[in-house]
Predict the 3D structure of the following.
Amino acid sequence: MTLKTKKAVELFCDGESPKYEEMPNGWIEIFDASWESKYFQKVEIEGLYRPVYCNKLIIPALKTAMHAIVRNATFLHEYEYIEVFQCFAPRHIRNNPHLPLSLHTFGIAFDINPEENKVKSLKPSIPMGIVDIFESVGFEWGGRWKLKDYMHFQPREDFFDFQETWIYR
Ligand SMILES: [Zn+2]
């Protein structure tokens, strides 16, 4: 089951939504520094060029996945593929103010090389080796949805149970 916004807040932010204001084009502005500092962390992750600002609870899975990608020689060129890794983006789903908040708001979804993997792209440029590894640690890939979102990954609804089965350590 795909993780919905309400459940995401329960699982990743102790049921606590941030205080925010609506901004133009489906963006929001969070004016709740204590909420952010409680649930977010800026972290260096092997294989990613810039520090990632994301929800603390996805960091172990992210590190595990990136380590597996970097370590595996056959994925070397694929690891170099990740140039842009975007996680935190406070906005509504598809920037539509009538839809719930995007999981990017909670720092648990991330987009890889968005320029090459737009929603209307005919096919992803993301190597399947990378997709497989992110899926193996509990992320769902938007490239499998009916409305393809190739750049996008987010935790499965059973993300935390799923980690029992991690094959990459
Ligand atoms: Zn996304």
Notes: The first strand starts at residue 20 and ends at 22.
